[in-house]
Hints:
The chain folds into two domains: about 1-180 and about 365-380, Glycogen Phosphorylase B (Rossmann fold, 3-Layer(aba) Sandwich), CATH 3.40.50.2000; about 180-365, 3-Layer(aba) Sandwich (Rossmann fold). Helices cover about 45% and strands about 15% of the residues. It contains 17 helices and 13 strands.
Amino acid sequence: MRIVEYIEYVDFENGGPPRAVVDLTRVLHQRGHEVTLATSDLKDVPRQWQEGDGPSVLTIPRPALPGGFFLPGQLAGLRTVFERTDLLQLHGVWDRTNMQIAALARRMGVSYCVSLRGMLDDWCMAQRGLKKRLYLSLGGRKVLEGAAFVHCTADAELEQSGKWFPGGRGRVVPNLIDLSQFETLPGADLAKTRWPALGGDGPHLLFLSRIHVKKGIKYLLGAMPALVQMHPGLQLFIAGTGDDAYLASMQQLAEQHGIADCTHFVGHVGGDEKLSLYEAADLFVLPTSQENFGFVQFEALACGTPVMTTTLVDTWQDIVGSGGGIALEQSAEAIVEGIGPLLGQPERLAEMGRLGREWVFDRLSVDRIAGELEAMYRDAVAG
């Protein structure tokens, strides 16, 4: 099948969607599809792809018109690609470029799907909700109405977002994760060498995600004083980047709680260091306000590290059902009550990690998820 994957920016520091698109493009190419990744930002597009080794890459000029819209001539390359395209997949809702690209696809008879990436979840729609509703009324809803399918990654996402697009068009398929990088892990020693505090008795907690108010870091920091009383050797590692002012406010909050000595802000971590950091942690903690999927949770499980998430995450029932995680209310008190006793049970944590890793490689296997996506694509093209 000839497929175009469009996402405006490929920058892994912007969260899960860009990584999801790169993994998806890679796997579809490996399975014999003719895939083109179309984007205006090549930051984290693999270099070999850009040099012609792998899926095709189409660089679309950044929108030249005010408001983030393209001049007609800027889509000439995409128009040429669409002449030999079976299916277009758009990623995200709020990129205004989607309106023009979806309209071009409709004019040229190219079927398309829209992957919501959690952007119509209730929490997201409550943030600047008036502006988002205006966007939908001015053309965003038409993009959804013209889609053969609207792709959700969890039943909870479909339940929340279904009010914004016509009934029957929703399709639930989990995100595709390229699990090959997790098959042989580097071991925890790499991270312990990089961050010596991981070498102590612990326990060791890990937060790895964007440093953003949505992620609930303040609740984790608020829980730390009580957790340290219960486990004096406790060390917390916070990995990720974000707004400098917000990061500074979280560092100041750690100072105010008297936990700065055992709280380590380590910045962006990638590659084997990231995998090793997962392995070195006793528990991965994501006290977030919303995730439609939450890549980092499943990465942690794939590394054999158990997960604490919140019941505000669309996939929390999967996390709990895997045997590798727990889901709590979003509060410092719930974190203390939920993980305080657990951190004193290393055998149980290890067993949870084992079960979670087994579940990821079974339920989220590349063959299984790619097959479900391919079925959605075939149905979309068939009409």
